Amino acid sequence: MIKLQVIGHLGRDAIVNNVNGKSVVNFTVAHSEKYKDAQGVQKDRTIWVDCAYWTDRTAIAPYLKKGTQVFAEGNPDIRNYTTQDGRTGSTLTMRVANIQLLGGRQNEGGGAYDSGATTSQSAAPAATYAATPSVATSNNDSLDDLPF
């Protein structure tokens, strides 16, 4: 079994399709990295992953908007194709098993993304995780009372 994990930004809004009575959410994730070539010149490389999330829980689709950062994992596949001019190419695809929203869009800058809509109609906030609650201790408590 081969497992692929991708953290990146969505290249376009997700599309929900119905194939033979089953729902699939299609989206693309881009991962960009900087590297130096043999001459020491800084270059950028972007890897695109076409994702298919086969699920009945399509409620996540409205949150999968262009630029949103996500973590997706699943089984990879490579599709080969021939262009109209006769060149061959390939694309990396993934059948998604799990997906998590990590943050907002790249151009959010800490605020809500404004695509011409009012703030109340802007993109949904990213998923947040509650921190472990801290236990307040008084000065009289000693560390020796800890159970571990």
Could you list some keywords that capture this structure?
single chain; 148 residues; mainly beta; 0% helix
Annotate the secondary structure layout.
Blueprint: E1 4-10, E2 15-19, E3 22-36, E4 42-54, E5 68-82, E6 88-105
Parallel strand pairs: 4-6
Antiparallel strand pairs: 1-3, 1-5, 2-3, 3-4, 5-6
Provide structural commentary:
With 148 residues, the chain is mainly beta. It has one domain: OB fold (Dihydrolipoamide Acetyltransferase, E2P). 0% of the residues lie in helices and 49% in strands. The chain has a five-stranded mixed β-barrel with strand order 1-3-4-6-5. Strand 5 (68-82) and strand 6 (88-105) form a beta hairpin. It is globular, with a radius of gyration of 21 Å. It starts with a strand and ends in a 43-residue tail after the last strand. Residues 108-143 have low confidence and may be disordered.
Helical content class = under 10%
Give the spatial strand order of the biggest sheet: 1-3-4-6-5
Principal-axis shape equals globular
* CATH C-level: Mainly Beta
Number of domains: 1
Straight-line distance between termini:
39 Å
Percent in strands = over 45%
Number of helices: 0
CATH architecture: Beta Barrel
Poorly predicted tracts of residues: 108-143
CATH topology: OB fold (Dihydrolipoamide Acetyltransferase, E2P)
Q: Superfamily at the CATH H level? A: Nucleic acid-binding proteins
Estimated structural class: mainly beta
Largest beta-sheet details: 5 strands, mixed, barrel
Order of helices and strands: EEEEEE
Rg value: 21 Å
What does the average pLDDT come to? 77
Please outline what is shown here:
By secondary structure, the protein is an all-beta fold.
